[in-house]
Amino acid sequence: MPQFIGFVAHDACKDDLLAWVSTHKERFRDRRIVATGTTGGLLAKAFPELSVTQLLSGPLGGDAQLATMIAEDRLALLVFLIDPMSPQPHDVDVRTLLRMAVLHNVPAAFNIATADYLVESRLFGSAYKPGRRDFSEHLGRLKA
Ligand SMILES: O=C(CO)COP(=O)(O)O
């Protein structure tokens, strides 16, 4: 199953994401990128040399699609630049995406500083794949 790198940016953060990707573009040349609709459209236009798959726009289900990709073990890493100052109509989807990243132990950055740490890590681009957590005991408790 191919592993994608996921990018999402709220409107106030889209310029920041474009600038950040531009800085680290070489690292993404051989990687498959997946992004919510508007974010993906901007990335594809700015960086035609990168492989960008566009999902639905965030408010129309793009965050939920990314959350599903995490549940299906198809996302290697998530960079999601969140605007902490604006309410989002699809906040419930945003929280689902965050929860899926935490639940399934996906390396995830929600601001530029952490995104920098991720791409500068010696683990980035290596064969490193974090293990998914085992919730079988927890599920057994729920069923009992
Ligand atoms: O709303 C978003 C993330 O919650 C981003 O969606 P767009 O990339 O379609 O703007």
From TrEMBL:
Nucleotidyltransferase listed as a keyword: no
Matches recorded under InterPro entries: Methylgl_synth, Methylglyoxal_synth_AS, MGS-like_dom, MGS-like_dom_sf
Binding-site residues for substrate, renumbered to this chain: 10, 14, 36-39, 57-58, 90
Ranges for domain MGS-like: 1-144
Catalytic activity: dihydroxyacetone phosphate = methylglyoxal + phosphate
SUPFAM superfamilies: Methylglyoxal synthase-like (SSF52335)
Active site: 63 (proton donor/acceptor)
GO molecular function: methylglyoxal synthase activity
GO annotation, biological process: methylglyoxal biosynthetic process
E.C. designation(s): 4.2.3.3
Gene Ontology cellular component terms for the protein in this record: cytosol
Cited CDD domains: MGS
The entry's keywords: Lyase
PROSITE patterns reported in the protein's UniProt record: METHYLGLYOXAL_SYNTH, MGS
Entry-linked Gene3D superfamilies: Methylglyoxal synthase-like domain
Pfam family, one: MGS
Similarity comment: Belongs to the methylglyoxal synthase family.
NCBIfam families found in the cross-reference section: PRK05234.1
Function summary: Catalyzes the formation of methylglyoxal from dihydroxyacetone phosphate.
Protein's name in the database: Methylglyoxal synthase
Organism: Desulfocurvibacter africanus subsp. africanus str. Walvis Bay
Gene, per the UniProt record: mgsA
